[in-house]
Amino acid sequence: MRKISRKFIYLITLALIACLLMIIVYVIHLPLPEEEQGIHQISGKISTCEFFTVGKSNENNYGIHLTLDRKISDRIFSYNFKGERLNYFNSICDNKSVVSFSYFADRLFIRPQITYWLLEEPEMVTP
C-alpha cells in the first residue's frame, strides 16, 4: 500500500476550501436599500428586450432582460423561461406591449449590483 504524500493532501485540502468558499460567496445576499426590499408591482410599455440562452444551448432554456419606458422605470428586469414561451415573449416585445408584473430586487456577494427579477411572466394590459 502506497503512502499518500503530504503535498497531495495539502492540495486536496486547498481545493476543498476553495470550493466551500465559492459556494458560500455565491449564496451570501448583501443588504438592499430599504425602498428596494420586498415585492413590487409595476406596469408600463416595453421599451427594449434582449434574449439570451441559459445553461447549455440544447436545454431550451432562455432568459430575457427587458426595460420599460424611461418615464416609468430605468431598471433592467430579468426573467428565465422555457423555450415554449419564446413566441409569447417575442410577441410582447415586437409589439412593444403594455405589461404588468411583480418583481423583487436581489444582490449577491458575487454580483454586488442590484438585479431585478420578475416573479412571473409579464401580463399584457389592455389600455
Give a structural overview.
- The chain is an alpha+beta fold and 127 residues long.
- The protein has one domain: Beta Barrel (OB fold (Dihydrolipoamide Acetyltransferase, E2P)).
- It has two helices and six strands; from the N terminus they run H-E-E-E-H-E-E-E.
- It has helices spanning 6-27, 86-94; strands spanning 39-53, 61-68, 76-82, 98-106, 115-118, 123-124.
- Strands 1-2-3-5-4 form a five-stranded mixed beta barrel.
- A hairpin with an 8-residue loop joins strand 4 and strand 5.
- The mean pLDDT is 86.
* Largest β-sheet summary: 5 strands, mixed, barrel
Q: Bin the helical content.
A: 10-25%
The secondary-structure element order is: HEEEHEEE
CATH class: Mainly Beta
Shape: elongated
Q: Total helix count?
A: 2
> What is the CA-atom radius of gyration, in angstroms?
21 Å
Number of domains: 1
CATH superfamily membership? Nucleic acid-binding proteins
Distance between the termini: 78 Å
The portion of residues forming beta strands comes to 35-45%
